[in-house]
Design goal:
By secondary structure, the protein is α+β, with helices and mostly antiparallel strands. It is about 35% helix and about 20% strand. The protein binds zinc ion (ZN). The site of zinc ion has 9 residues, from loops.
C-alpha cells in the first residue's frame, strides 16, 4: 500500500485514527451502500491491525471504535428512558377516499393558494427506535443511546444492542457532519427491520434446534432488539432505516423538534451523514401523485427484501407541519396509508390430505376461489390435526384466509354470523395413506400424521420436486407438472372448481392430494401411463430419461426436451453440498449440508463418519448427527448414492483446511473479552480445529472468561475445568 511507509512515522494515536476512519468508510460502503470495495479478508486484516494497536494502547480505546460494536451486556434488563418528545403513532387511511379527505384537510388547514409538497416513504413493518447522538472530541458525533418506542413517551434503553447494527454509525466525522449540514448533537428516528433472508435463516436454525419458528419478521426483530445477548443481536443482521432527524437534548425547548426545514432535506442529510435511508422515497405535489407512488409500492411489495405494510405520507415543509399541528395524539401533517390486509373470507369446500417428502400428511383446505391482494387463492394449509381442532373448523364453514409474501396461505379463523352460516360436516382424518394405503402413524410427541412407507409414491414425487428445485440441484424445467408426467400422470385441463365440487372429506382423499398448494394445473387421479422414473437416480439413466422418452410426454416439444436434458446434464456439476441437500436427509438444511461437505470432503468419508465424529462438526448437534447416521445406514439410500455416483454426480468437495493447534479441545466462552468479540473468538478457535460449546460440562477443556463472567465461570471452578483469559487463548492459538 502506498501510504504504508508514511503510517510508520505516525504516532499510535494517529495510526489508530487512520485505521478507524478507513474501517468506518468500508463498513459504510458494505452495510449502507451495499457496494463493498474490500473483501472480507481485507476488512478482517485491517480490523485485526486496529485491535492489536488498541491492545497495545488500551488507553486509546473509545466506545465509538469499530472494534467496540459488541461490548458488555446489559446487566439486568433495560433501563426505562423518557423520549425527548413523544414518538407518536400516525392516523391511518385505508383507501383512496380517506387519503383524499386527509389531503383536503391539509390544504384546508393552510392559507389559500399555498402550495403543498408531500414526501412519500415506504411504511416498513418493523419497530421504531430513537437514536441520540452527542458531540465527541474534535467535532465528531457519537452514538449515545438507542431507545425503543415503548409506550411512545417512555422507552427502553437498548443501546448495547443497537450498537451491533452495522448500518447504525457509532461515529460520524466532523467532515461528514459538515457536508450533511448537521450539528454534532441530534436525534434520529427510524425503523429496525429483520430482512426476509435473515428471518428465514433464523427460523431454519430455530427449527433445527427444536424451537418453534418465529411468526413473522416484525416479531423476530422486536424479540431480537430486546434480548440480553448482544452477540445474538449482532448475528441476526438487523437493519435500521432512518427517517426522522430531530434536534438533540442540548436544544432545550426545541429538543426533539425537526432539525431542518423540510422532511425531504432531513432524508437527504441523513443519507449524507452515512445513515441507511430507504431509497424508495419521493417528494410529490399532489394526492394523485401520492396514489401513483402507493400503486408502485404495492406492486413491488413482494420483491422487496423486507416487509412493508403501507406508505407514510408527510407534508414536506416543517413550517406547514407546525401550522397544521396535532389532533389529540396524532399529527395532522402525516398519515399512514395501509395496504389492504392480505386476508379474505371464503368457503371451505373440502379438505385434501397431501403426503410430503418425509411422509408427513398435511391437511390442505380446498377453498372457493377468492382474490386476496391480487392473487387468486384456492388452497390454504391447515397444518396438522391439532390446528383443525384449535380452529374448530368444519367443511362448509366460511373462513378467514391470510397470505403473506412467500408464505403459503393459511386459515386464521372460522367466520360465523347471519350471512355466514356454519358448515356441518366434520373433517375426518384418514387412517391410511391416501396415496399408498399404508396405515398412518402419529408418533408420540409429534403433532403430524405420517405415512411410514418409504416407497410411498407421494414421497418420490416430493423428493423429485425438492431435488430439482432452484436452491438444490437447480434443474430448470423439472417443475411440478413435469415431475407428475415423469411419474406417469397425464395433465388434465378441467377447472379446479369443477374437479373439486362437490367435495366431501372422504372423496377429497382420493385424487387431488398430490397437488401442491399453488394453483398449477390439476393432475389426474391415477397414473395413466407407465412411469419413466421410479427414483431420483432414474433422472440420470439414459435408458429411462432421454430425448425420445421426453418427446412422448404431453406438451413436450423438441426445445423443451433438449433444454431439460441439458439441465439434467449440467446438474451433475452441482457441488457436494447441493447433492447432500438433494438427498433430503431430515434436518439437513443448506448450512448443515455445507458444513458436512466442508468438513468431510467426500461422501465416502461422510458415510463412514460416526455420530461422535459428526457432532464434532460445528453447529451439528446430536439430533442431526443421529439422522445423518441413520440415513447412511439404510441400504436403499446407499444404493441411491452409488447409482448417482455412477452417473457422474459430484461426490467430493474441497475440505476446509483447519488448523490442528486446538484439535479435540472443547471451549466455552463467557463474559466480555478485552479485544475479541465472542463470535470472533469462536471463529478463531474453530479455525484452529477446536470446538465451542454453550455450556460447561466435564467434557469442557477450557473456559475462556472475560469481564463480567457469570455462572459459567462458577461452574468451571466447581468442575475443576481450566480457565483462560483472552491472552491465554491467544497464546494457545499461537
Ligand atoms: Zn403413503
Amino acid at each position: 500500500m502506498a501510504h504504508e511507509s508514511s503510517t510508520a512515522k505516525l504516532s499510535p494515536e494517529q495510526q489508530i485514527d487512520a485505521l478507524r476512519e478507513e474501517l468506518r468508510h468500508h463498513e459504510y460502503l458494505y452495510y449502507v451502500m451495499d457496494a463493498p470495495q474490500w473483501t472480507d479478508a481485507q476488512y478482517d486484516a485491517r480490523m485485526n491491525q486496529l485491535r492489536a494497536l488498541e491492545a497495545e494502547h488500551p488507553g486509546l480505546i473509545t466506545s465509538d471504535s469499530p472494534t467496540q460494536r459488541v461490548g458488555g451486556k446489559p446487566k439486568e434488563g433495560f433501563a426505562k428512558v423518557a423520549h425527548s418528545r413523544p414518538m407518536l403513532s400516525l392516523d391511518n387511511a385505508y383507501n383512496e377516499e380517506e387519503l383524499r379527505a386527509w389531503g383536503e384537510r391539509v390544504v384546508g388547514g393552510l392559507a389559500l393558494a399555498e402550495s403543498v409538497q408531500y414526501v412519500c416513504e415506504l411504511k416498513l413493518d418493523g419497530l421504531s427506535l430513537a437514536l441520540q447522538y452527542e458531540a465527541g472530541a474534535r467535532g465528531v458525533a457519537t452514538l449515545k443511546t438507542g431507545i425503543t418506542r415503548g409506550d411512545g413517551t417512555i422507552g427502553e434503553d437498548v443501546t448495547t444492542n443497537v450498537r451491533t447494527i452495522r448500518s447504525v454509525p457509532l461515529h460520524i466525522s466532523a467532515k461528514k457532519l459538515e457536508e450533511a449540514g448537521l450539528p454534532a448533537e441530534f436525534e434520529v428516528r427510524g425503523e429496525v427491520v429483520l430482512p426476509q433472508k435473515a428471518f428465514e435463516r433464523m427460523n431454519e436454525e430455530r427449527v433445527a434446534q427444536g424451537l418453534a419458528p418465529a411468526a413473522n419478521p416484525r416479531n423476530a426483530a422486536a424479540g431480537t432488539i430486546r434480548t440480553l445477548e448482544p452477540n445474538i443481536v449482532a448475528q441476526r443482521r438487523l437493519e435500521l432505516f432512518a427517517y426522522f432527524l430531530l434536534s438533540g437534548s442540548g436544544a432545550g425547548d426545541a429538543a426533539g423538534e425537526p432539525l431542518l426545514s423540510s422532511q425531504s432535506a432531513a432524508l437527504q442529510a441523513l443519507r449524507e451523514a452515512g445513515f441507511l435511508v430507504n431509497p424508495h422515497a419521493r417528494t410529490v405535489k399532489s394526492i394523485d401523485q401520492v396514489l401513483t407512488f402507493i400503486a408502485e409500492a404495492d406492486a413491488m411489495r413482494d420483491s422487496l427484501p423486507y416487509e412493508i405494510d403501507g406508505v407514510v405520507i408527510k407534508v414536506d415543509a416543517v413550517a406547514q407541519q407546525r401550522r397544521l399541528g396535532f389532533t389529540g395524539k396524532a399529527p395532522r401533517w402525516a398519515i399512514a396509508y395501509k395496504f389492504p390486509a392480505r386476508a379474505g373470507i371464503t368457503q371451505l369446500k373440502g379438505v385434501l390430505f397431501q403426503v410430503g417428502r418425509t411422509g408427513k400428511v398435511t391437511p390442505v383446505a380446498a377453498l372457493t376461489p377468492v382474490s386476496i391482494g391480487g392473487t387468486t387463492v384456492t388452497r390454504a394449509t391447515l397444518h396438522n390435526p391439532d390446528e383443525v381442532v384449535r380452529l374448530g373448523v368444519r367443511i362448509g364453514d366460511f373462513v378467514s384466509v391470510e397470505r403473506g409474501g412467500d408464505v403459503i396461505p393459511k386459515i386464521t379463523e372460522v367466520v360465523s354470523d347471519a350471512s355466514h352460516p356454519r358448515g356441518e360436516q366434520e373433517i375426518v382424518f384418514p387412517t391410511s395413506c391416501p396415496r399408498c394405503g399404508e396405515g398412518l402413524v402419529r408418533e408420540p410427541g409429534e403433532v403430524d400424521l405420517r405415512c411410514v412407507n418409504v416407497s410411498c409414491p407421494a414421497r418420490l414425487e416430493e423428493e423429485l420436486r425438492h431435488f430439482a428445485s432452484r436452491g438444490v440441484m437447480n434443474i430448470e424445467g423439472l417443475g411440478e407438472s413435469m415431475v407428475a408426467q415423469l411419474l406417469g400422470h397425464t395433465l388434465v385441463e378441467q377447472s379446479e372448481a369443477a374437479s373439486l365440487s362437490p367435495v366431501s372429506a372422504s372423496s377429497a382423499n382420493s385424487g387431488l392430494d398430490e397437488n401442491a398448494l399453488d394453483d398449477a394445473g390439476d393432475i389426474a387421479e391415477e397414473p395413466t401411463r407407465k412411469a419413466l422414473v421410479h427414483s431420483i437416480a432414474d433422472l440420470y439413466d439414459p435408458e429411462k430419461v432421454n430425448r425420445g422418452t421426453l418427446l412422448m410426454l404431453e406438451r413436450v416439444g423438441e426445445k423443451t426436451a433438449d433444454a431439460l436434458m441439458e439441465q439434467i446434464e449440467r446438474s451433475k456439476k452441482q457441488p457436494l453440498q447441493r447433492v447432500l441437500l438433494g438427498l433430503g436427509i431430515r434436518h439437513v438444511g443448506e448450512r448443515t449440508a455445507q458444513a458436512l461437505a466442508e468438513e468431510f470432503g467426500s461422501i465416502d468419508v461422510l458415510i463412514a463418519a460416526t455420530e461422535e465424529e459428526l457432532t464434532r462438526v460445528n453447529d451439528i448437534g446430536p439430533k442431526v448427527a443421529a439422522t445423518v447416521r441413520e440415513f447412511f445406514s439404510n441400504e436403499r439410500n446407499l444404493a441411491l448414492v452409488e447409482r448417482l455416483r455412477g452417473y457422474g454426480l459430484t461426490f467430493t468437495a474441497e475440505r476446509k483446511v483447519r488448523g490442528t493447534a486446538l484439535a479435540g479441545l472443547m471451549f466455552v466462552l463467557t463474559g466480555t473479552l478485552p479485544t475479541l468479540t465472542r463470535e470472533e473468538a469462536k471463529e478463531r478457535i474453530e479455525a484452529a480445529g477446536g470446538k465451542v460449546s454453550g455450556s460447561v460440562s466435564k467434557k469442557t477443556s477450557y473456559v475462556v472468561a472475560g469481564e463480567e463472567a457469570g455462572s459459567k465461570l462458577e461452574k468451571a471452578q466447581q468442575l475443576g475445568v481450566a480457565v483462560l483469559d483472552e491472552a491465554g487463548l491467544l497464546a494457545m492459538l499461537g
